[in-house]
Known about the structure:
It is a single chain. The protein is about 55% helix and about 5% strand. It has about 160 residues and is mainly alpha-helical. It has a two-stranded antiparallel sheet. A hairpin with a 6-residue loop joins strand 1 and strand 2. The protein is rod-shaped and about 105 Å long.
Amino acid sequence: MWQVLVNPHKFNFFAQQSEKNVYLHRQKHKNLITMALINCPECNAQISDAATACPQCGAPLTKPATDNPQPAGNNIPECPETHLAKSIILTILCCWPLGIPAIVNAAAVNNAYIAGRYDVALQKSQEAAKWCKYCLIAGVAFWFLYILLIAILTIAELV
């Protein structure tokens, strides 16, 4: 008999893609109401829980009172802003040592959100925004000092 050894970490990419597909499917169909099958109390046939009467025997069905008429799957929070484009542009134009943490945190936002960890996604989004601000401040300060230095050297050369 042959035995095949499988590394479970090798297929992590496929698991992430599967989670992403499930999330996209939920987002696409979030306005649809899901129905379950229940048994008719009279004839014991399987019918939809949204039916008002059994289609086989005609027995009226009573619906249980619910406090929340919306299905639980519809209250998925929005994905926080990733700041990925902003962090890439600021990394290229301003300050790459401070832009790299911004890119890393921005790239982690979607992964955490798809995995269902909204609090981590929100934290990573805030971290990416913070590093983008640091990168912008450092870039503006650098370019200001550079232009000031060129102006001072040009004036000193004229004198």
